Amino acid sequence: MLVGIPKEVKNNEFRVSTTPAGVHALVVAGHTVFVEKSAGVGSAITDSEYVKAGATILDTADEVWAKAEMIIKVKEPVAQEYHRMRRGQILFTYLHLAASRECTDAIIKSGITAIAYETVEVNRTLPLLAPMSEVAGRMSIQVGAAALQAPNGGRGVLLGGVPGVAPGKVVVLGGGSVGVSAASMAVGLRADVVLMDINLKRLAEIDDIFQGRVKTIASSPYAIEEYVTQADLVIGGVLIPGAAAPKLVTDAMVAKMKPGSVLVDVAIDQGGCFEGSHATTHADPTFKVHNSLYYCVANMPGAVPATSTAALSNATLKYSLALANKGWEQAMSDDAGLAAGLNVHDGKIKYAAVAAAHG
């Protein structure tokens, strides 16, 4: 198969979909890999490293998309890429279509076969979302702590406190990969951490993981309001696979929060779990709602590409090889988990949650 690796063009997106090791595995399996010139520079990967792995470097994105039978990306296509998609081509990437009617419509119109990393399933887990969820969860505390600093508009709280001064209060919504990763970092900084989830069994597992250092609370609108309004930093990490995120923190709750408190919406790729959320970029990451600061960057792991690219490529390579070796229909016939990744084919939505999100 002819496989294309284009350079990412989303604002401040420095990741690339496949490392030289991944390219080498595809080439050894008998496939031809086209990499756009400088595609890996943001992740500290040179063109010469790709050439050494067996890739062919092409000068432009147009050439890569035109030649390739399968495009492997990191992020969903943006407007400047829509015209490059075509019927009969495979697109394998993060899509998050429930959050974007514009992108969904463009993919439908193109006729391309679009397979989403975030809906591939194995034993009710999301193996291609997990590595970026872990990165984003850990980053959420890092960026939240920075936003809390007074020069950045925050209330001037040090999450870990100091002897004689109470630590900052962190509330984490969601007990999945994002939530546990965020809680781990917050505990490491010696913050006062509460994690909320609707799944009591999951809360018991998290309590055991952290040996009581994280307070676990059964989630409800009443409990969310109680804890969020006391928090210095709130992390939104809830997920319904493929669907729009539920709005757990209302505008009315935020109006009651401490001035200068910070909310980091890691669910923004799926529309966000705070009522006032809208997607931002690394170039302009925050905005105010009432007296609180929102951080809603839709590609958080793009800021740490050397780590994120390697983690993503490690996770996706197995599936990229299956699609290239067998074609998408046979690969999905052989692997029901990969079949769950099919979001759009031949102008029709194939994932129920995406269809529901857009009516």
From TrEMBL:
<dbReference type="InterPro" id="IPR008141">
    <property type="entry name" value="Ala_DH"/>
</dbReference>
<dbReference type="InterPro" id="IPR007698">
    <property type="entry name" value="AlaDH/PNT_NAD(H)-bd"/>
</dbReference>
<feature type="domain" description="Alanine dehydrogenase/pyridine nucleotide transhydrogenase NAD(H)-binding">
    <location>
        <begin position="148"/>
        <end position="296"/>
    </location>
</feature>
<comment type="similarity">
    <text>Belongs to the AlaDH/PNT family.</text>
</comment>
<feature type="domain" description="Alanine dehydrogenase/pyridine nucleotide transhydrogenase N-terminal">
    <location>
        <begin position="4"/>
        <end position="136"/>
    </location>
</feature>
<protein>
    <recommendedName>
        <fullName>alanine dehydrogenase</fullName>
        <ecNumber>1.4.1.1</ecNumber>
    </recommendedName>
</protein>
<dbReference type="InterPro" id="IPR036291">
    <property type="entry name" value="NAD(P)-bd_dom_sf"/>
</dbReference>
<keyword id="KW-0560">Oxidoreductase</keyword>
<dbReference type="GO" id="GO:0042853">
    <property type="term" value="P:L-alanine catabolic process"/>
</dbReference>
<dbReference type="GO" id="GO:0000286">
    <property type="term" value="F:alanine dehydrogenase activity"/>
</dbReference>
<dbReference type="GO" id="GO:0005886">
    <property type="term" value="C:plasma membrane"/>
</dbReference>
<dbReference type="Pfam" id="PF01262">
    <property type="entry name" value="AlaDh_PNT_C"/>
</dbReference>
<dbReference type="InterPro" id="IPR007886">
    <property type="entry name" value="AlaDH/PNT_N"/>
</dbReference>
<dbReference type="Pfam" id="PF05222">
    <property type="entry name" value="AlaDh_PNT_N"/>
</dbReference>
<keyword id="KW-0520">NAD</keyword>
